[in-house]
Design goal:
The complex is a heterodimer of chains A (about 375) and B (about 325).
Chain A lengths: L18 E2 L2 E2 L20 H26 L14 H10 L5 E4 L4 H6 L4 H9 L22 E4 L7 H14 L5 E6 L6 H13 L3 E7 L2 E2 L2 E2 H4 L14 E6 L3 H18 L3 E6 L17 H8 L3 H11 L5 H24 L23
Helix pairs in contact in A: 1-2, 1-10, 1-11, 2-8, 4-11, 5-6
Chain B lengths: L1 E4 H15 L3 E5 L15 H5 L4 E3 L4 H13 L3 E5 L10 H8 L2 H4 L9 E5 L15 H5 L5 E4 L3 H13 L4 E5 L7 E4 L13 E4 L4 E5 L2 H15 L4 E5 L2 E3 L3 H11 L2 E4 L8 H13 L8 E3 L10 H7 L3 H11 L4
Parallel strand pairs in B: 2-3, 2-4, 4-5, 5-7, 6-7, 10-11, 10-13, 13-14
Antiparallel strand pairs in B: 1-8, 6-12, 9-11
Helix pairs in contact in B: 1-7, 3-4, 8-12, 9-10
The chains are: A alpha/beta (about 375), B alpha/beta (about 325).
């Protein structure tokens, strides 16, 4: 008797299992945004204007950076944050200025939000000595430690334990600061995150761990690379958690304000899944065949910057003319930054050996 | 001088530095309540409490990274690995983060952290517990690497490592923890990182050996002395920065050199020393430099195979015979 033929073996990822007509659903489900208005969130009109300026700055900085990259002004990788600006902005406005922030390589927005000037940022992209990391780091390694922005890190998940360590030092020193560690949805599958969650909970580290779930880990849809909802990662460690709408700066601000106060008070870690959408490819070389144009357009209808602009106009906080003035001012700032970067010098050849060691005259093996 | 076990010298160094500086703390598997897997941290929990002597879960990647973040944010962590064979799980933190964060941020980040624990083999523990990692870490810019052979060196160099503002890999050996030796009782005894030590004077041949291999070289030297061969033993103590001038000076006197290393042969410490000697002392050599290393084979379990695998005094003597043409 002939053996029954086995079904064809198939290792296509099963994903979360919310298949629709045989295809794994892509993108992210955005939770409802907060209904609160700015006053009940404790935000002044000035705060809102500053938020708008910041988000618009991040957007235009990167759009211009992309052009410069395409013109061949600089090399390396370029991972754009476009679409996710509400997360950096809402967070930085909610946290104290001396709380410690660390993120992955999609870091330009975070740097700009924490005081890397457009000049310093653009010059870093160009690899110039006037860059925030003296041209030593490039796109993936913006940093401004004097403002408690510890940098962008290029190894997926590698900086998650480091974020825990920042919180450890804060607790050790009883300085009242907390750390906030941001990473992409691809990093939730790394052991480094799981080990850190367990230790953070064991030791009561005052740390916020936040995944910016933008729907894709490079070209793999979030819903294909994890078999449970990402937020549920926290359950295994008894860690508090929440899902946040990352396309709405008010929602990010509201949650970050509440959660940061709770973490500071209780010295317990907290996990946030902030859902958002990356408009551009993973990096500049991404043909984006894994998603449709329609899908992208659906999320762009929720654009965080347009959303805040509409609010500012509807609430008569800013007129169309005032919005344009802000935008023109920022546009000019970025054009100036490009000029600054272009005109800056590359690092001196001797700088190759600088910053390797703490000593003034370190040993280099030859 | 006081006679101390290796583990006691390590403990004294940690204790003195913790007493001296509040920012120094130690974490690792079994360091606190268990008093250390090899008792190197015995009594420290009682003295300093749970804030500064911290038991970790078995999560080398996680707790090493927490150490890196704590160092960046102003503390001076000592991260203990039960063995450097387990630190492979933490390699991302040591190699990608501790050694690079300062450079890639243009000097904005300081990294005063010590990763320490036993290195290399310790008897019949099989292939995964028996690797010497000092050469591997020394390969990476930004790391200092120390692998000491005697309690006195261990105390003085560990204190220096804890005070160093850079990441330092500090290596010990399970098989040496019980070994006794004279240790300086000098107040605040410090040995600078990067300085080797001539541990035996001799005019006939230079033997470079560090860590556990120093003791193998010493056994060989005692045997060779009976045959009238005077061996000069140089223990570099620090693998990187390397005290190359000390080695070169010795070769100018002896004109012959054997390097004994506990690592595998390819691209290891012995290979590097061999290259440096031909570059710096070519005209002084009367014979090609010889090396004694592990074979290019994993550690076996069986006693007879293990004994054949680990470098011993006999192999050192054979190498010395070769460079002195005493066959």
């Amino acid at each position: 008797m002939a053996k029954k033929k086995n079904n064809e073996i198939n290792f296509a990822p099963r994903g979360i299992g919310d298949e629709n007509d045989g295809a794994v659903q892509k993108g992210v489900d955005l939770p409802s945004p907060t209904r609160k208005k700015h006053k009940s969130l404790g935000l002044s009109e000035e705060d809102l204007k500053a938020m708008y300026e910041q988000m618009y700055l991040q957007r235009r900085f990167e759009e211009r950076a992309m052009q410069q990259y395409q013109k061949g002004k600089f090399g390396g990788f370029l991972h754009l944050y476009i679409g996710q600006e509400a997360i950096s902005t809402g967070t930085v406005f909610a946290l104290n200025d001396d709380d410690d922030i660390i993120t992955a390589y999609r870091d330009h927005g975070w740097g700009l939000c924490r005081g890397v000037t457009p000049n310093e940022g653009m010059a870093e992209l160009f690899g110039k000595k006037t860059g925030c990391s003296k041209g030593k780091g490039g796109s993936m390694h913006f940093a401004k430690t004097e403002n408690h922005f510890w940098g962008g890190y290029g190894i997926v998940g590698g900086h998650i334990p480091i974020g825990g360590g920042l919180a450890f030092a804060n607790k050790y020193n009883q300085n009242g600061r907390i750390s906030a560690t941001f990473f992409g949805d691809g990093a939730v599958d790394q052991g480094s995150m799981h080990e850190t969650f367990n230790i953070a909970q064991l030791w009561g580290l005052p740390a916020i761990f936040a995944v910016e779930n933008n729907g894709y880990s490079m070209g793999t849809a979030a819903r294909r690379h994890t078999v449970t909802e990402i937020v549920d990662r926290a359950k295994a460690y008894g860690m508090k958690s929440k899902v946040v709408n990352g396309m709405d700066v008010f929602s990010v601000y509201e949650t970050m304000k509440e959660v940061s106060e709770e973490v500071r008070e209780s010295s317990e870690p907290y996990f946030l899944e902030i859902r958002t959408y990356r408009y551009r490819g993973h990096s500049m070389s991404d043909p984006q065949k894994y998603r449709t144009k329609e899908e992208l357009e659906t999320y762009q209808k929720n654009d965080p910057i347009e959303r805040l602009k509409t609010y500012l106009k509807d609430e008569e906080i800013l007129s169309e003319k005032e919005v344009e003035e802000i935008e023109e001012k920022i546009e000019q700032e970025i054009l100036d930054a490009i000029e600054f970067a272009d005109n800056s010098d590359f690092p001196d050849k001797s700088a190759l050996y600088d910053d390797m060691f703490a000593e003034d005259e370190p040993y280099f093996h030859k | 001088m006081a006679e101390l076990q290796f583990r006691e010298a390590i403990r004294e160094a940690i204790d003195e530095e913790m007493a001296r500086e509040e920012k120094v703390f130690i974490m690792g598997e079994e360091v606190a309540e268990y008093n250390g897997a090899y008792k190197a941290t015995e009594g420290l929990l009682d003295k300093y409490g749970y804030k500064r002597v911290i038991d970790t879960p078995i999560s080398e990647l996680g707790f090493s990274g927490i150490g890196v973040g704590a160092a960046m944010n102003g503390l001076r962590p000592i991260v203990e690995f039960m063995t450097f064979n387990f630190a492979v799980l933490a390699a991302d933190q040591i190699i990608n983060h501790a050694s690079k964060a300062g450079y890639m941020t243009g000097g904005q980040i300081n990294m005063p952290i010590v990763f320490r624990g036993p290195n290399a083999s310790a008897g019949q523990l099989g292939a995964t517990h028996s690797v010497a990692y000092d050469s591997m870490y020394a390969h990476f810019p930004g790391l200092k690497v120390i692998y000491t052979s005697e309690p006195d060196d261990a105390k003085g160099l560990l204190k220096s490592a804890i005070r160093d503002d850079n990441p330092v890999i500090f290596m010990e050996s399970e098989q040496m923890y019980g070994m006794k030796g004279e240790v300086s009782e000098e107040d605040d005894y410090i040995i600078p990182i990067g300085k080797g030590k001539i541990k035996r004077q001799g005019n006939d041949v230079t033997v470079v050996a560090h860590g556990k291999m120093y003791h193998i070289a010493k056994q060989a030297a005692v045997q060779l002395e009976k045959d009238g061969v005077e061996v000069e033993i140089i223990d570099p103590r620090t693998v990187k920065p390397l005290d190359l001038p000390m080695i070169v000076e010795s070769i100018k006197k002896t004109n012959r050199c054997v390097v004994v290393d506990e690592a595998h042969p390819f691209a290891g410490f012995a290979a590097e020393i061999g290259y440096l000697i031909q570059r710096e002392a070519f005209d002084y050599l009367d014979a090609p430099v010889q090396r004694v290393t592990l074979p290019d084979v994993n550690a076996p379990f069986a006693k007879n195979l293990f004994d054949a695998w680990l470098p011993d005094a006999k192999q050192v003597i054979e190498a010395v015979n070769k460079v002195t043409y005493r066959n």
